[in-house]
């Protein structure tokens, strides 16, 4: 469904992402992660742990 030329699902996704970002704000710093590459490495490690080797090469 479109509303004012935009999809409602798209708006809901953006709202959910904004809510998640607000909830996690400052957590990287609390973990001692100061650079974007450190955060990316943490994400890769979490993916490996959660999904196994199948997704280990995904960035």
Helix content: 55-70%
Mean pLDDT rating = 80
Q: How widely separated are the two ends?
A: 32 Å
| Residue fraction in strands | 5-15%
What is the general shape? flat
Weakly predicted, low-confidence segments: none
Radius of gyration: 16 Å
- The number of strands is 2
Explain this structure:
The chain has 59 residues and is mainly alpha-helical. The protein has one domain (2-55). 63% of the residues lie in helices and 7% in strands. It has three helices and two strands; from the N terminus they run ββααα. The protein has helices at 8-24, 27-30, 36-51; strands at residues 2-3, 6-7. The chain has a two-stranded antiparallel ribbon with strand order 1-2. A hairpin with a 2-residue loop joins β1 (2-3) and β2. The mean pLDDT is 80.
In short:
This protein is mainly alpha-helical and 59 residues long. Helices cover 63% and strands 7% of the residues. The model has no long low-confidence stretch (mean pLDDT 80).
Write the layout of secondary structure elements.
Elements: E1 2-3, E2 6-7, H1 8-24, H2 27-30, H3 36-51
Antiparallel strand pairs: 1-2
